[in-house]
Design a protein that fits this description.
By secondary structure, the chain is of the alpha+beta class. The protein has 2 helices and 7 strands. The strands form 2 sheets. It has a 5-stranded mixed sheet with strand order 4-3-2-1-7. The mean pLDDT is 86.
């Protein structure tokens, strides 16, 4: 599906979003809620209230693209909403977590083997 570079980061907006939002509405959420640059080339995931519909916003050097997936049965398993000092905390996931999410695999039930992980620089 996606062939993502290691440099691409994936941010999840875990609060439900009105799925009628398009480019400008999702860009606004990226800037105001995630405090990220929507033109960065990173992926930004948004979920519906029912959890059966997701949208991915991505800047592709000459324009934005939105990818969407709606499930006929079941829901996507998103990370839980977290707050720090009363403020919404954005979540960043790895490429493998994105693929598991899209395939309907609960990442909490997956056991990861120990691997070296370099700390991410902001």
């Amino acid at each position: 599906m996606f062939n993502l570079s290691l440099a691409v980061r994936i941010f999840v907006y875990t609060k439900p979003v009105d799925m009628r939002k398009s480019f400008n509405g999702l860009m606004g959420l990226v800037e105001s809620q995630l405090h990220e640059n929507p033109f960065s080339g990173h992926l930004f995931l948004f979920r519906s209230k029912r959890g059966n519909y997701i949208k991915v916003l991505w800047w592709d050097s000459d324009g934005f693209a939105i990818f969407a997936k709606k499930l006929d049965v079941g829901t996507f398993r998103f990370p839980t909403v977290e707050f720090v000092d009363g403020a919404y905390k954005p979540i960043e996931i790895e490429r493998s977590d994105l693929l598991l999410l899209l395939e309907g695999i609960d990442t909490d039930s997956v056991k990861r083997l120990k691997r070296y992980r370099r700390t991410k620089d902001k």
